[in-house]
Amino acid sequence: MDCPRCETTLETYALAGSEAEVCERCGYVGVSVEHESEPVELESWQEALRRFEEKHAE
Ligand SMILES: [Zn+2]
Q1: pLDDT for 9-57, tens place per residue?
Q2: From the centroid of its chain, how far is CA 53?
Q3: CA of 58 to the centre of ligand 1 (A)
Q4: Which of 22, 27, 42, 44 has minimal CB crowding within 10 Å?
Q5: What is the whole-number distance in angstroms between the Cα of residue 34 and the centre of ligand 1?
Q6: Secondary structure class of 32 (helix, strand, coil)
Q7: Please, where are the H alpha helices in the chain?
Q8: Between 37 and 2, where is the model more confident?
Q9: Distance 41 CA to ligand 1 centre (A)
Q10: Is the pTM of this model over 0.85?
């Protein structure tokens, strides 16, 4: 899957028991929802990702 903004290949992160599609280039975060084919962009996931990256960087 590619980023809808810049078409960079998205990275998949496992967060809080779910998966998020993340673009490291532009910061897009998409959450896959079972009932929808299109990922949903949520601000809360960007915050979660920020915490994940902080922990990952240590
Ligand atoms: Zn992007």
Answers
A1: 999 988 667 788 889 999 998 876 555 555 556 667 777 778 877 776 6
A2: 12
A3: 25
A4: 44
A5: 22
A6: coil
A7: 43-57
A8: 2
A9: 12
A10: no
